[in-house]
Amino acid sequence: MATPVKIDFVSDVSCPWCVIGLKALEGALQRLDGEVSADIHFQPFELNPQMPREGQNIAEHIAQKYGSTPEQLAASGEAIRARGADLGFTFDMEKRDRIYNTFDAHRLLHWAGLEGRQHQLKQSLFEAYFTEGRDPSDHGVLLDVAAKAGLDPRRTSEILASGEFAAEVRERQKFYGAQGIQAVPSVIVNDKWLIQGGQPVEAFEKALRQIAAESAG
Fold this sequence. Notes:
- The structure is a single chain.
- By secondary structure, this protein is an alpha+beta fold.
- It is built from 9 helices and 6 strands.
- The protein is globular, with a radius of gyration of 17 Å.
């Protein structure tokens, strides 16, 4: 009988390593099918909460925030693209030249969790930004992405036009900040174990097997 585990996946929709971490986690869970049964909850984290609506050029942003040179940015981008390809995800670096505010996307993700469509929306948001180069702060894009994830367009529009779920998202961000989460992805298992970063499939598999064995014992 599979051991149930609760997974809180703390991440931002504009974080490429969060895509890699999620795909690796999914790969590990496939390998552990029959051993581990995971209940995944996506929790909000904003890498750039002060980012204006129009966003910022990625090269400019990375240079300001981390001091990276164009050469370092290109090398990092190629590493991300290659890791994504190995995991079956397409990073199209040519289409993604800006970074955007993601707060409204997190509001929709909170609602999608209540509707049982959170995983589908997370996947669609990642594809929209990293594969298609679309703006995840644009309400038209968010409406389209939410519909693709199976969410009701009218309800989506109502949420985007209001401040609904803003307080809940901020509360969750404050909670994980108080727990010391300062980088993503952060994968918290059973409210106890922390796995950080875009780890390989094998690392997630080993950790989850150990956690499941301890939980079952």
